[in-house]
Specification:
The complex is a heterotrimer of chains A (about 120), B (about 475) and C (about 500).
Chain A: H1 2-5, H2 7-25, H3 29-50, H4 73-104, H5 109-117
Helix pairs in contact in A: 2-3, 3-4
Chain B: H1 3-23, H2 28-54, E1 60-67, E2 70-75, H3 78-104, H4 110-129, H5 133-151, H6 157-189, H7 207-219, H8 231-234, H9 240-267, H10 269-274, H11 280-297, H12 302-323, H13 326-357, H14 368-371, H15 373-387, H16 393-407, H17 411-437, H18 452-470, H19 473-484
Antiparallel strand pairs in B: 1-2
Chain C: H1 7-24, H2 30-53, E1 59-62, E2 73-76, H3 78-106, H4 111-130, H5 134-153, H6 159-189, H7 194-201, H8 208-224, H9 233-240, H10 243-269, H11 276-301, H12 305-325, H13 329-360, H14 371-374, H15 376-390, H16 396-409, H17 413-442, H18 462-480, H19 483-496
Antiparallel strand pairs in C: 1-2
The chains are: A mainly alpha (about 120), B mainly alpha (about 475), C mainly alpha (about 500).
Chain lengths: ~120, ~475, ~500
């Protein structure tokens, strides 16, 4: 059962590889970028998983509750930042793809390479 | 003038001279006056150091620390003193000659020529006075880089290809072999200073000695030990004054000077004498002497023949230093002087012939003696000195090297000297004979003597070649100090 | 509270705050002036900080008043001072020379945005160098990277777009790897502060996650630092970026990633992981040697000057990594000095190419043919910078090559192999630098591929020439008086490896 107990980490690993595969194997730039987002999403999951404390609740101090167990708030804050970074990257990547489409008329990587050689 | 100031000035004078020459770009007369004046001033400055060094002083100049334990510093010792005197003294003659040659052939870019020449001389002074290997290496590279424009002077594709060989071999050997050798030395000896008796004794033994020596000897490409000699014939595309002063005296002597200094002050003769792994140097230099002489026999172009002759003569110095006996050490230093006088005369003569008649090939020289008597007389003296016939300087140095070889019963060296003397005679005497006694080819236009400045210059060096046979005592006195070490 | 005590924060804040202001500035040259002024101010701050770091002092600054290790700590030591000096110096010099060529490339309306992106990139790089917090490094890394993608995409032809996209993908993968590693370390130690992490790692029993983290962090940063064989984005990015952007990023961006790599691997992991030293050197030293050989070999045959120099950078990064992989004080000192000196040499070289390209319009060796006749000063500066890259004595490159070879020879037989590779790389450098210089001086202008659009030689912008000569002068200055970078490198190396003693 220990293996299943690490369920979140399994999902993390699988998502990471799915994303990484798309980044490497796809020639379509939008698909590459999608893969990159999945890749980053997996890492968000890793951070969120590690902050969970058994029986812990959201780390918000409420009046009257004294001995509550809280989950670790720091990774959540970190990952909020990482999500912002991820969104920026995706936005910039999409903007680049638009420009590439305007310049080349395609968003397939191999085709842009072929057009450059010509 | 204090000795320290004199060291500083001898580095600064040619460097500042280069700026002054560049500034006088549009006025050729002023430019050439500056060149001659700077050369005179430099020789005078170097001369002020001489009495002190002969009296046993070792003046120093410390500029600053480059890395911990490694500084840019200068220290005058007998060998460097001799080299500095030689280069600065001959620069005066060569400047006079250059004026005649460059104007006589209406060369382009004359300002660049004089500027680079002055920078090269500054580098030569740095090499001569360097206190340690790193300082020497710094000026060694400056010399390589500053002579490149001189070699590539003509600027046509043929010249550039040759200049590429020149720069390529010199830089590649120095970066690829000499620098690792210096760093190796530093990492085992913790110093790179030149110390009489060597710095490696006790810290390096066995085959490592031979290997390090090889890195040094082949890394110092300017010494032209085969197989790193190809740059020297390639450098002959340069105008003749460059070949004369730089590729018969300053640059090539920088090479053998550095090798000698490394043998005497880095390894120390004691270490080399007890390490059999270093014996290869005698054979390598002997091979170079013989092979270069044989190649010289087959040359048709006068300057290329002289270049191969130079390669052979340089290895005399290295072989003499490698013989390791006291007399041979003196022979090595005297041969630098004797060969310098003789070979610069020969190149001056070659340039004079080119200026007067545009002749460059050996077979065109038949009967030229009657048309250019002064030039060919000087050429004859130079050639006799190369062979080692008295009363020329070449005899004196060969005498000492032979004596040194006999001191240690080094039969390889003795054999090489005898055979190469025969070979030298075999390639010089036919030229001299044809020049004086053969009938000139009637189809070739007759011509007169070269411009006066050229004739004056080559007469001076020819006289010096003769004079060195009789008046070599000061040099002997100076280099006697090497025996005591 | 004096202004001096706020300098570590100002180092980041000045460029970061001027960036949005720049966007608001309209009118020719105003944005440029503001960016250059901000960058120069950052440089001045870096100099001031370096002066304190030279004494061996470490400055710690608690961001927002939260004490370390809970708050974000800005931490300035010799290593970060050297990096700051290089980064802000490279940025200032390239901005100084950038005005005319960028104005021509971008047009007046987009110019302010370009300079804003530049300042953001600068702020990010400074932030990486000065922060003492692992996650903060990630944030600054992404700030600078995102801005750099924008700068590269501003290149003159469409290849810049694909190059920027490729860089974006690989850069983000690298950063995400780093993030995973930091997460794992945080999971085991509960801290993000470098110094605290180093101390707490000693108490961690289960080291397997830490080993995995070390792997992720090293690979991720190696991607960012373009370490062979993860260098594929670099030649495209360098060659298609606007010329002066290339100067900026070539001089410092890969070095900053290497800085984090060395800080993590040596400062944090080295003392706490058994066998880490062996793993690090046996894994990275062969890659470094391969990088030197392959990068040099490609540079020798490449005909596009910017790509040639980019491959030379791959080789030079190999030198740096090689020095670090020796894992001793001498090697680390050599590596850190190399980072600085290679930045100087490569920056000056790219700057010279930028000046030449304003007239020749092309970047192939044939395009440069004979340009030295019209532009003797630019060509002379290129020769000096080239000499520094080869390692001719009297230039900064010689100092670092000396240190590296000396460190290699102390390593025994394998060190000799390394030394041979370094020497081979130097000889290749001689060959490829010469391939640039010879046509420059002796080529005939007819060889130009520009064809119909004959090159027009106008005067080089004086500011660009000034910046170029300042860079070339720095190569000579630090070659003859190398005390500052060398002693900073020694301090930095001692700190990185301090706990080994």
């Amino acid at each position: 059962m220990e293996l299943l107990g690490l369920f979140n980490y399994w999902v993390f690993a699988v998502l990471l590889m799915v994303g990484f595969y798309a980044v490497i194997a796809k020639t379509n730039m939008v698909k590459k970028l999608l893969g990159l987002s999945i890749f980053q999403g997996a890492v968000f999951l890793l951070y969120i998983t590690m902050d969970k404390v058994d029986g812990g609740t959201a780390p918000i101090i409420q009046p009257g509750v004294v001995d509550a167990i809280y989950s670790n708030p720091l990774p959540q804050v970190l990952i909020l930042t990482a999500i912002v970074v991820g969104i920026s990257t995706t936005a910039l990547g999409l903007a680049l793809i638009v420009r590439i489409y305007e310049a080349y008329g395609t968003i397939e990587e191999d085709e842009t390479q072929r057009l450059d050689i010509e | 003038m204090t000795p320290t100031l004199a060291i500083g000035l001898s580095l600064l004078l040619p460097a500042l001279g280069a700026f002054a020459i560049a500034a006088a770009d549009s006025r050729p007369n002023l430019r050439e006056t500056i060149t001659v004046l700077v050369a005179l001033a430099l020789a005078a400055t170097v001369a002020t150091l001489l009495p002190g060094v002969m009296a046993g002083e070792r003046p120093e100049l410390y500029l600053g620390e480059l890395l911990p334990g490694i500084s840019i510093a200068f220290k005058v010792e007998p060998l460097g003193m001799l080299y500095a005197c030689l280069a600065s003294g001959l620069w005066i003659v060569n400047s006079i000659y250059s004026i005649g040659y460059m104007r006589g052939n209406s060369e382009k870019h004359q300002t660049r020529f004089y500027v680079c020449f002055a920078i090269a001389l500054a580098a030569v002074m740095g090499i001569a006075f360097a206190e340690n290997l790193v300082t020497l290496f710094l000026f060694y590279e400056i010399l390589t880089l500053s002579t490149y424009p001189l070699v590539a002077h003509k600027g046509d594709s043929n010249t550039i290809a040759s200049a590429r060989v020149y720069l390529g071999i010199l830089l590649a050997t120095s970066v690829g072999l000499l620098l690792p050798a210096i760093i190796w030395t530093y990492s085992v000896a913790d110093t790179v200073s030149f110390v009489p008796g060597g710095i490696l004794t006790g810290s390096l033994t066995g085959p490592g000695v031979g290997l390090l020596l090889a890195l040094f000897v082949f890394g110092i490409g300017k010494a032209a030990v085969m197989p790193v000699h190809r740059w020297l014939p390639a450098a002959m595309v340069a105008p003749t004054p460059v070949s004369a002063l730089l590729h018969a005296v300053a640059v090539v002597k920088a090479g053998v000077f550095t090798v000698t200094k490394v043998i005497l002050y880095i390894f120390g003769t004691g270490l080399l004498a007890q390490e059999p792994s270093s014996n290869w140097l005698i054979f390598a230099s002997a091979f170079t002497i013989l092979a270069a002489s044989i190649v010289a026999l087959r040359q048709q172009n006068l300057k290329r023949m002289l270049a191969y002759s130079t390669i052979g003569q340089l290895s005399y110095v290295i072989m003499a230093a490698a013989v390791l006996t006291p007399l041979a050490k003196i022979g090595a230093s005297i041969h630098m002087v004797a060969h310098a006088f003789g070979k610069i005369t020969l190149f001056f003569a070659a340039g004079a012939i080119y200026t007067a008649s545009k002749k460059t090939e050996l077979n065109q020289l038949r009967g030229i003696g009657t048309q250019m008597p002064w030039t060919m007389a000087a050429f004859t003296i130079g050639a006799l000195s190369m062979i080692g016939v008295p009363p020329t300087g070449g005899f004196v140095s060969k005498w000492f090297i032979l004596a040194g070889a006999f001191q240690s019963d080094n039969y390889v060296a003795i054999f090489t000297i005898i055979v190469s003397t025969a070979l030298n005679a075999a390639y010089f005497l036919p030229i001299i004979f044809a020049a004086w006694f053969a009938k000139p080819d009637p189809q070739l236009k007759s011509h007169g003597e070269a411009p006066t400045a050229i004739v004056v210059a080559l007469s001076i060096t020819a006289l010096a070649t003769l004079g060195f046979f009789f008046f070599n005592q000061p040099v002997l006195d100076l280099e006697r100090a090497l025996m005591d070490q | 509270m004096s202004i001096a005590s706020q300098l570590p924060a100002l180092q980041i804040v000045v460029p970061l705050l001027v960036a949005p202001l720049t966007v608001l500035l309209r009118g020719s040259g105003l944005a440029w002036a503001a960016a250059t002024a901000a960058s120069a101010m950052a440089f001045a701050i870096a100099v001031a900080l370096t002066l304190t770091a030279l004494d061996g002092a470490t400055i710690s600054y608690d961001m927002g008043g939260w004490p370390a290790p809970y708050g974000i700590e800005l931490r300035l030591d010799a290593f970060s001072a050297l990096l700051l000096l290089l980064t802000t110096g490279a940025s200032t010099l390239s901005l100084l020379g950038a005005r005319d060529s960028i104005a021509e490339l971008m047009g007046e309306s987009r110019e302010p945005l370009f300079y804003a992106a530049w300042l953001v990139a600068l702020a990010g790089l400074c932030g990486i160098a000065i922060t003492g917090d692992a996650f903060n490094v990630f944030v600054f890394m992404e700030i600078s990277s995102l801005a750099t993608y924008v700068l590269i995409a501003a290149g003159p032809d469409r290849r810049a777009l694909t190059a920027a996209f490729k860089y974006l993908i690989m850069g983000t993968v690298g950063a995400t790897f780093y993030l995973i590693g930091v997460g794992l370390v945080y999971m085991m130690t509960g801290t993000l502060n470098f110094a605290d992490m180093e101390a707490r790692l000693a108490e961690v029993d289960e080291v397997r996650p830490i080993v995995v983290a070390a792997g992720f962090i090293t690979i991720g940063l190696a991607l960012k630092a373009a370490i062979f064989p993860l260098h594929v984005w670099l030649p495209n990015a360098y060659s298609s970026a606007p010329n002066l952007v290339t100067v900026f990023i070539a001089a410092c961006s890969t070095k900053v990633a290497l800085y984090v790599l060395l800080r993590f691997d040596f400062f944090v992991f080295h003392g706490n992981l058994v066998g880490h030293a062996f793993q690090f050197s046996s894994f990275l030293a062969p890659l470094a040697v391969l990088g030197i050989l392959v990068g040099s070999a490609v540079a020798v045959v490449e005909s596009n000057v910017k790509r040639l120099l980019a491959y030379s950078s791959v080789a030079q990064l190999g030198y740096i990594l090689l020095g670090a992989s020796f894992g001793d004080l001498a090697g680390m000192t050599a590596a850190i000095t190399l980072m600085f000196n290679h930045g100087l040499a490569k920056g000056a070289l790219f700057m010279a190419i930028a000046a030449l390209a304003m007239h020749t319009r092309g970047h192939t060796l044939a395009d440069l043919s004979g340009a030295a006749r019209q532009m003797p000063w630019t060509a002379a500066a290129l020769v000096i910078a080239g000499a520094s890259l080869i390692g001719i004595p009297g230039t900064a490159g010689f100092i670092s090559k000396w240190l590296l070879l000396q460190a290699a020879l102390q390593q025994g037989p394998l060190g000799v192999v390394a030394a041979v590779a370094v020497v081979a790389g130097s000889l290749a450098a001689l060959a490829y630098v010469w391939r640039i210089i010879e046509p420059l001086y002796f080529g005939t202008a007819e060889g130009s591929t520009a064809g119909g659009s004959t090159a027009v030689y106008t005067a080089t912008p004086p500011l660009l020439l000034l910046a170029l000569w300042l860079a070339a002068g720095a190569n000579v200055y630090f070659g003859l008086i190398p005390a500052v970078p060398v002693s900073l490198s020694e301090l930095a190396a001692a700190e990185l490896l301090g706990h080994l003693r």
